[in-house]
Write a structure and sequence with these properties.
The structure holds two protein chains of two kinds.
Chain A: E1 4-15, E2 18-29, E3 33-37, H1 44-51, E4 64-67, H2 76-82, E5 83-86, H3 98-108, H4 113-126, H5 142-153, E6 160-164, H6 172-187, E7 191-196, H7 199-205, E8 208-213, E9 216-221, H8 223-230, E10 234-239, E11 253-258, E12 261-266, H9 269-276, E13 284-288, H10 291-299
Parallel strand pairs in A: 3-7, 3-8, 5-6, 6-7
Antiparallel strand pairs in A: 1-2, 1-4, 8-9, 10-12, 10-13, 11-12
Helix pairs in contact in A: 3-4
Chain B: H1 19-35, H2 38-42, H3 44-58, H4 72-79, H5 83-103, H6 106-110, H7 117-145, H8 157-176, H9 185-198, H10 211-217, H11 221-234, H12 241-268
Helix pairs in contact in B: 1-7, 3-7, 5-7, 5-8, 5-9, 7-8, 7-12, 8-11, 8-12, 11-12
Classes of the chains: A alpha/beta, B mainly alpha.
């Protein structure tokens, strides 16, 4: 049996009248990559911050958070000593070099001086930043800063890594590199909590995920299992139509329309293939449904902000 | 798997660094960042008292007679040991703190490591005290070069700079906890610190002020720093200094506690 290492029960967080997280429960197994997906404002960041005490949950008898045996409301230091945090916004010390940033940060964990320089070299090598050791933060690209923040989060050899949108705004090369490194860490036994609104990222990394909207959990499960259970496997996309696309007779098709693009979901590939013949080849395209379809289906197509 | 099923989570034992180590690590971060620009940060503390003494020695001093049997320039020189400690601590814990809090988000990174908000701001106040110590020491060196140090016991006056730094570090953090717009610090500096500089017995003695103004002046923390620093400078220690010291300690404890309480709410809700 695999050990559970994190458990949240009925967690709620209010900011004034706004409920950022509503009665959320989940648990995470050791060495899992647990994803929290949701549009902006879904409460992902707030939930992940509550796990290590940088946000405090509302006090109620029913609610509880347990991370590696500790309650972040009382033992935040123990949790933070066991965890590595990659925040949404870069917060490096701009005046210091790459190496100095890591050195200063290692002091917050009380690491011994002898170990530190070896650990810094290891981490720079791992995140492919060795050549930038002496560089100033200002001279780093966005991708390098992100890699450095991840290296920084690993300085205390964490058992838990909490990443808040780790690859937002990065190019595909860096994104893939970061995904590789995260998979490697996971294989080594690190438990990962990932918040993201990139469905591709969640699909690539997460062993289990929840989809959140407006502070609530909407779906939970393994990515492939969620797709199978909650959305039709095939999608026909139709572009460039002047008239709305409608089908009166078709039972097996669900249409989602936006002005410039119609999505026809179906369980039967053959049904969609028949429809294709009615359109210009350039205006239609069949694919498998993905997490993004599921995400939009469950959280809605309107803007949340 | 049901989230509500009872799950036993094995506690993972972990050694957390001790309080002193955590506070030191915060102090050390500030020290490293500050000394990164040693020339631009380290030169002004020496230049400022020079300008002051030159202006008074060459100009103003001729128009002012003796104060309590001391030449005006010596009265002033022994007083100006503490205001730089006030200003440097105030800048550090207002503009500096606000930038770390809101713009650079440095605090968010720091409290994601194994330190908490209390460690963070105690370390910061002690760093403000440390800057106060060195700024006072810089003034002491300059006035010593000009032969304006009346007694060797003045060697201890940077300690008053340290206490001054702690007081204004704590007060400024408290002010910062209310501020949402960095420009509002102008009110703090022009409205509170500048008057404090003039009405705390540094530039002129408080004795001849109208009663009510004099009483108000004793509410100012800098007044107590000035009394303490002159005691060391002139080697005269009346028992009432204990009251000044008590004021300083109580001030530091109250404003640090309030500042930490308020900033904790602001940082982690």
């Amino acid at each position: 049996m695999i050990d559970t290492v994190i458990k949240a029960d009925n967690v709620t967080k209010s900011y004034g009248n706004l409920k950022a997280v509503k009665n959320l429960s989940f648990q995470v197994e050791k060495s899992a990559c647990f994803g929290m997906l949701g549009p902006n404002g879904a409460g992902k960041t707030t939930m992940s911050r509550m796990l290590y005490g940088n946000a405090l949950r509302d006090n109620s008898g029913k609610s509880a958070i347990n991370v590696f045996g500790y309650d972040p409301g009382y033992n935040e230091l123990q949790i933070k000593a066991l965890a590595g945090i990659v925040p949404q916004e870069n917060n490096l010390d701009l005046e210091l070099s790459v190496e100095q940033n890591l050195f200063i940060y290692s002091r917050f964990y009380g690491l011994r001086k002898r170990e530190i320089s070896k650990r810094i070299d290891e981490l720079l090598n791992f995140m492919e930043l060795t050549e930038k050791k002496k560089s100033k933060i200002r001279d780093l690209s966005g991708g390098m800063k992100r890699r450095l923040i991840i290296a920084r989060a690993l300085i205390n050899r964490p058992k838990l890594l909490i990443l808040d949108e780790p690859t937002t705004g990065l190019d595909p090369q860096v994104r893939n590199l970061i995904w590789d490194k995260l998979r490697k860490l996971q294989r080594e036994g690190v438990t990962i909590i990932l918040t993201t609104h990139y469905m591709e990222e969640a699909f690539q990394l997460c062993t289990r995920l929840i989809i959140m909207n407006l502070g609530e959990k909407i779906l939970e499960g393994r990515p492939a299992q969620l797709l199978k259970k909650h959305i039709e496997p095939y999608v026909l996309e139709i572009f460039n139509q002047e008239k709305p696309v409608t089908f009166h007779d078709n039972r097996n098709i669900r249409i989602e329309g936006t002005e410039s693009r119609y999505l026809l979901y179906s369980n039967e590939l053959e049904t969609l293939k028949r429809i294709v013949t009615d359109y210009n080849p350039g205006d239609v395209y069949i694919r498998q449904s993905n997490l993004e379809d599921l995400f939009l289906k469950t959280t809605g197509r309107h803007l949340n902000e | 798997m049901n989230s509500n099923s009872p799950a036993q989570i094995k506690k993972v034992e972990i050694q957390v660094p001790g309080l002193a180590s955590r506070i030191y690590s915060v102090w050390y971060r500030h020290y490293r960042v500050y000394t990164k620009n040693l020339i631009s940060n380290g030169f002004p503390p020496f230049l400022e008292p020079l300008i002051f003494l030159a202006a008074v020695g060459l100009g103003l001093g001729h128009y002012v007679g003796l104060i309590n049997g001391t030449s005006y320039i010596m009265f002033l020189a022994t007083g100006i040991i503490v205001p730089p400690a006030m200003f440097t601590a105030a800048f550090e814990c207002s503009f500096g703190t606000f930038i770390r809090l809101e713009f650079d988000k440095v605090y968010d990174g720091m409290i994601s490591a194994s330190i908490d908000v209390k460690d963070l701001f105690i370390g910061e106040i002690i760093f403000a005290g440390t800057k106060g110590f060195f700024f006072s020491a810089a003034v002491l060196i300059v006035i010593a070069v000009f032969g304006l140090v009346p007694s060797p016991s003045a060697i201890f006056s940077p300690l008053v700079g340290f206490l001054t730094g702690l007081m204004f570090g704590a007060l400024s953090l408290f002010i910062t906890s209310f501020v949402n717009n960095i420009n509002h610090f102008n009110f703090y500096f022009t409205g509170l610190l500048t008057p404090m500089f003039f009405f705390s017995g540094i530039v002129f003695p408080l004795d001849n002020l109208p009663g009510i103004v004099r009483k108000l002046a004793y509410l100012f923390p800098l007044t107590h720093s000035a009394i303490l620093v002159r005691a060391f400078a002139f080697n005269i220690f009346p028992w009432t200094l204990l009251l000044n010291l008590l004021y300083i300690i109580v001030f530091i404890v109250i404003f640090s506690s309030l500042a930490i309480y308020r900033l904790k709410k602001r940082l982690i809700g």
